[in-house]
Amino acid sequence: xxxxxxxxxxxxxxxxxxxxxxxxxxxxxxxxxxxxxxxxxxxxxxxxxxxxxxxxxxxxxxxxxxxxxxxxxxxxxxxxxxxxxxxxxxxxxxxxxxxxxxxxxxxxxxxxxxxxxxxxxxxxxxxxxxxxxxxxxxxxxxxxxxxxxxxxxxxxxxxxxxxxxxxxxxxxxxxxxxxxxxxxxxxxxxxxxxxxxxxxxxxxxxxxxxxxxxxxxxxxxxxxxxxxxxxxxxxxxxxxxxxxxxxxxxxxxxxxxxxxxxxxxxxxxxxxxxxxxxxxxxxxxxxxxxxxxxxxxxxxxxxxxxxxxxxxxxxxxxxxxxxxxxxxxxxxxxxxxxxxxxxxxxxxxxxxxxxxxxxxxxxxxxxxxxxxxxxxxxxxxxxxxxxxxxxxxxxxxxxxxxxxxxxxxxxxxxxxxxxxxxxxxxxxxxxxxxxxxxxxxxxxxxxxxxxxxxxxxxxxxxxxxxxxxxxxxxxxxxxxxxxxxxxxxxxxxxxxxxxxxxxxxxxxxxxxxxxxxxxxxxxxxxxxxxxxxxxxxxxxxxxxxxxxxxxxxxxxxxxxxxxxxxxxxxxxxxxxxxxxxxxxxxxxxxxxxxxxxxxxxxxxxxxxxxxxxxxxxxxxxxxxxxxxxxxxxxxxxxxxxxxxxxxxxxxxxxxxxxxxxxxxx
Length: 665
Known about the structure:
- This protein has 21 helices and nine strands.
- The chain is α+β, with helices and mostly antiparallel strands.
- The chain folds into four domains: 9-160, Beta-Lactamase (2-Layer Sandwich), CATH 3.30.450; 281-392, PAS domain (Beta-Lactamase); 415-529; 530-665.
- Helix 13 packs parallel to helix 15 and helix 16 packs antiparallel against helix 18.
- A five-stranded antiparallel beta sheet has the order 6-5-9-8-7. A four-stranded antiparallel beta sheet has the order 2-1-4-3.
């Protein structure tokens, strides 16, 4: 509290009392001035009545008789009044003359009023009539103009105002001084005593300090000051009670904290034990998308590292490629989550990924996680954090995949049995497979980078329409094609998507279904899928191309000649080079697409085991993140190891495929 600068209530009161008195005085003076003006106007009217009775009759007779001496005498009688400065008479003959400037027959000006503004004069007009003997009607002679001045009126008014001003000023000063001293004695002195008492309050000396009392007689009826004193005394008493409680609490605080801490730790340990025994990763994401502590112990086991402080994209979504539908949708959804109301979260939650596949050193095909989300608000319905749970469902998903494949095979078999022309079906499937190889090869060819979006959209639509016309006997294919056409339409409507990537993925999915359908049909009626020597050459060409891609990547970029002899030191160098290599993502995408094409080609040629290896390679490189998020384990598990499994199987593959082609021919 700053006690050096004080402002007095009494001083403020004086200011307002003075201001009030001045305003009241001004109002009173204005009223007085108006009353004086009315009084002077009344005096002028009284003078005019007197003139009409005493001076006008003689003046009328003198005018009628043209007695100049009498006229002058009457006019001077009027000018004898100190407030009248001049009089004039206007004959009847000049009244009706519009051009006349009212020339005056008589003009007397014996007083010095030449410097006054004529507009300040008050003019009164009196008609002059003369009673002629023997006639009942009076003769109208003209108008008499009488000019009054305000000089004397103003002098009198000014004197009265000045006298009243001095009186009011004296009254104001006396009233103000009396109010000041009365207020100071009755109020200010007591308030100062209360302030001093409040300043002297000391928590450690409240018991010894007596109650506050005013230095005055006890009133019969307590006023506001008495009420304020009682409130201060009550406050002092409450302070004393609470201070004593606080001292007692502080003395026992250590024991209370120990008991409370023990209880909290017991509950914390129970919750921690419960969470750590659940085979689910539980963690919280902040508004900056970083994972906040604490996390469940199972998280480190699930992700094979400590995830606290990592960006969520480094843990769950690092293999979402830019330009893909899942990447764009994830980016938009996460951006909106921390800007929206918790009540609107359910709608956004439906757009978040429910499953993700991440690389894993123990699972060759990667680890499949089931994700669930829960919004945490800050108490104002604004989302502050996002809780996420991740559960490993790899085994159940693999079983589900096998189950779905069996179910699909059953539906395919059911339809194939119902088709009467099975030979025709075999021929149309063979033709469909060839067209599928051709369009897939075009979509992933080196020239595909030069194609615009319309090339992929239009060619794929045309391809689906042709397949639909070729396989017009299949209801299942008709349903599949209609579904994929809707997907393509969505891709066409979005300008942000990578058209080549999205359309090629749909094509591969449809191609996979076509091959499975053909293999099911082969169980009933052998489907002669005659790829011929041209497709054998394509398979050899694509294998050689893929080997060249790997050779360029490892020998010329990573400077590694034998991938089976990469130790930890070399792996460290490979990681650094991969992160700095600008074409790394494009190379990985090329490996993914080429290995996917080889999977289909080799399955068509009957090399199912090798086709499976290329499928594994395609899936694993697809899981690889952007180069800035690479790690040694990802490069090893998702790129080097799957290719090292394929490499020995490619020995003499060219001769085997050529012989297969000759046998077919």
